[in-house]
Amino acid sequence: MSMTYDELRKSLKGPVHLVMTPVTKEEEIDFECLKELIRVQVKQFKGNDCVFLAGGSTSEFYGWTDDMFKKYVNVVVEAVNGAFPLIFGTSRPGTGYSIKMSKYAEDAGADGIMIVNTYYHPSTDECVYEHYKAIADSVRCGVVVYNNPITTKLYIYPDLMKRLSKIDNIVGLKENTDKAQMFYRMYQTIDPNDMNVFTGLGESFFQYTALHGSRAFVSDLANYLPDKAFEIYKAGAAEDFKKLTSLVEALDPLEQFKGRVASRQNVSTALSTYLPVGGVPIYQSFVKEAMKIVGLPMTGNVMRPMYNLNSDEIKELKGILKELGALSS
What we know:
By secondary structure, the protein is an alpha/beta fold.
């Protein structure tokens, strides 16, 4: 741990970069490729506000053994090497198991940990509070709450979140609501001196949350179009909302593509057509294939049982990225 939890709270700004996981044919983590990927991205992001978020859903933690997770943590800490704030997803279904993983990440050098809502069994509000408090009490580093009802079927409402925010080292909230009014209420309820609130739904939702003063957003775009991710952040931070909206609208061909792929896979909820990152099982493959197309170190597919784009979809994606200027030819 190189940051205090208060320093981490203040550093939660800019694109929150989702670290993708290179994978071998045997569905093991390709650690050598992972090292190279992070070193390239640290160089790409230099001079910008950014936070590295590793080991969560997008990183495919659910496909790993504990030994894989521990080696992953060590490799990522070494590769980032203090260049940016580094947070690891350490949630597990049980409190004690989450504490074990959280302490490992902290001891290895994480600046913070991210804990998703309790999952598998439904929990009472008091059980949720005690879960987070026990984890926060077990570490000295900053804790980020991941309020994600899509994967957990549980939502932490503003009153309970305010209680959590009063625990000293719970310093951030990755808020996954797709309702602008709910985000506004959460943002208004939480004292920013207690907890830094940011959207988990990417650039598309940042155009709304930036209006309320939020200055961070989870980004898969930073993996394959980092200049555009940072441009969007800077427009929001400067409160140039006309430019921010224009920049986000320019990315709509990517959102439309994700929606088409999702629809062909019998995932045709209204959510999937405009917020593909929100639980639709194609977004990880989309990001990995985009990274390969733009020439970043990335190996393998997405771990089963998640969906992998087919050759026709990859060809279509390449054409869209070319139109967006991601490719020179």
